[in-house]
Amino acid sequence: MVSRNLVICDQEVRYAAALAEVFMKAKELALGVQVCNSVEQTVKLQEESPVDILLIGSSYPVEDRKKIKAGNVFVLAQSENAAHETNEKLINKYQSGEAIMGAVIEQCTQSGEPERFFLRTAKKQNVRIIGIFSPVHRSKKTGYALKLGKELARTYNVLYLNLEVYGGIGGHFPDAGQTVADALYYSRQEKKHLRAALAGMVKHMGPLDYLLPMRMSEDLKAVEIEEWTEFVEQIAEQSIYEVLILDIDEGIRGVYELLRMCTEIHVAVIKEEVAQAKLFQFEEELHLMGYDDVKQKMVKKELEG
After folding, report:
1. Nearest to 144 by CA among 129, 126, 131, 158
2. Which of 3, 157, 184, 269 sees the fewest Cβ atoms within 10 Å?
3. Which of 302, 285, 286 is nearest to 294 (CA)?
4. For the chain, what is the radius of gyration of the CA atoms?
5. Is 34 helix (H, G, I), strand (E, B) or coil?
6. What ranges make up the beta strands (E) of 37-153?
7. In this predicted model, what pLDDT tens digit does every residue of 126-147 receive, in sequence order?
8. Cβ neighbour number for residue 106 with a 10 Å cutoff
9. What is the pLDDT of residue 1?
10. 6 to each of 12, 14, 44, 73, 199, how far by Cα in Å?
11. What is the mean pLDDT of residues 53-80?
12. Which of 95-104, 168-177, 206-215 has the least mean pLDDT?
């Protein structure tokens, strides 16, 4: 159900259309998004239905912008003084669409009734948490995890989280954007609004939503296991995601506890003598340390080395 109407009004038609696509890809948001290229067109639109959120280019004169009545007005500006004479909120036009969306969501949710910006989620009885793990390097488990995520995302709302020490930004993932570290920081500070933060952070790989891996390995190693488990639980409880895919590295503190909270664990293995020996050692360690329940959740996935 659409709760709010968002209108993007800008003379750069391609820019407005691209920005609209960013908002429409955000599965969490209960927004109807429309694009206009003139103030007159936007005024006519508001006569048909209220404009709750307006993003308008600073190239339109202030007096023209005042003709549009909207609950929240954001000026897409190239200079810092573009909205100096008004009460409009200023947003840098030439930053990433995700950054613009994040700023809009943050300011709108702070103004009250944040739940109206998000799709209502039915109480989820069982969120599927799939851990992807391997004691063997070179197992191609990240490629497997992303492929699995895309397949599941055709049917379910799926979020992929890369929790590797070296996640490979610039490889599977783009260079720019907020990372798991940003989402984790936000969950520590504003636990009630993690859902809003996620909506502005996630990127898309086809039907699959994902967060970029952490950029600094030491940051990942410093996170306590209690923080990881609470972070995953918050996402499972607050978001629309029905499936979480955790691409897990042995460098995480308390890695076995994180594996324990998964509903299933896909272990990537390759047919190689040394690799098989490492897998045997891993299974023996699970038993010796009292994690037989983790071992029982394991599903071995043989991949080409």
Report:
1. 131
2. 3
3. 286
4. 22
5. strand
6. 51-57, 70-77, 89-92, 128-133
7. 899 999 998 887 768 889 999 9
8. 17
9. 46
10. 17, 17, 14, 10, 15
11. 87
12. 168-177
Query: Amino acid identity, residue 174?
Result: P
Please list, residue by residue across 194-218, b when 16 or more beta carbons sit within 10 angstroms of its beta carbon and e when fewer do: bbbbbbbbbbeeebbbbbbbbeeee
Residue type, 93: K
**Could you identify the residue written with the tokens 């329940």?**
293
Owner of token pair 């918050």: 234
- What percent of the chain stands above pLDDT 90? 37
Spatial separation of the C-alpha atoms in residues 206 and 181, rounded to whole Å:
23
CA distance 148 to 163: 16
Counted residue by residue, the chain has a size of 305
Strand 128-133, strand 264-269: pairing? parallel
Distance of alpha carbon 173 from alpha carbon 160, whole angstroms: 12
At position 63, the amino acid (one-letter code) is E
What pLDDT sits at residue 168?
74
pLDDT tops 60 at residue 233:
yes
